[in-house]
Amino acid sequence: MATTGWFRPPIGTTSLPNRSVNRQSSLKLRDCFIEYPLASKIIVRNLSYTTNESCLKEEFSNFGQIVEVKLVKGETSTKSKGYAFVQYTNQDDAMSALETMDRKYLDGRVVFVELARPIDKRSAYPKTSGPPQESPYSGQKQTQG
């Protein structure tokens, strides 16, 4: 008699089909590093709420020397928001961690690892849909005084 249920593979392995890093995704990641040449910080999403910074440091230190692990918590509570930043001393270590740990199991959940990008305040707001509206100031000449 076969049993059904949830199987939790060990940390660092995955049972998801077709999740191996292929050449195309590796090139895509390298393009990100070209765009952000000093990038050595990654973001780990979909973390278990019980995962702590020491667990993250232990797991991600396998790829290189870590400068900082920052588990993001709520402003009013000490509860984890489910994501963290890991900063490495160099870009190659961050790249290795990103390629290896993306879509792997950590504390019973599949985590997603991406390159942490700088915050652009202009893109923080949603863009409106439809044709662009003409600005009332676009037709005026600027006077110098």
UniProtKB/TrEMBL annotation:
N-terminal signal peptide: none
Domain of life from the UniProt record: Eukaryota
Intracellular or extracellular location(s): Nucleus
Protein species of origin: Deinandra increscens subsp. villosa
Stretch list, region Disordered: 122-145
RRM domain span: 40-118
GO MF terms, alphabetically ordered: mRNA binding; U1 snRNA binding
Main location: nucleus
Protein name: RRM domain-containing protein
Alphabetized UniProt keyword annotations: Nucleus, RNA-binding
Pfam families from the UniProt entry: RRM_1
GO BP, sorted A to Z: mRNA splicing, via spliceosome
Segments of skewed composition (Polar residues): 130-145
PANTHER family, per database record: GLYCINE-RICH RNA-BINDING PROTEIN 4, MITOCHONDRIAL ISOFORM X1, U1 SMALL NUCLEAR RIBONUCLEOPROTEIN 70 KD
GO cellular component: precatalytic spliceosome; U1 snRNP; U2-type prespliceosome
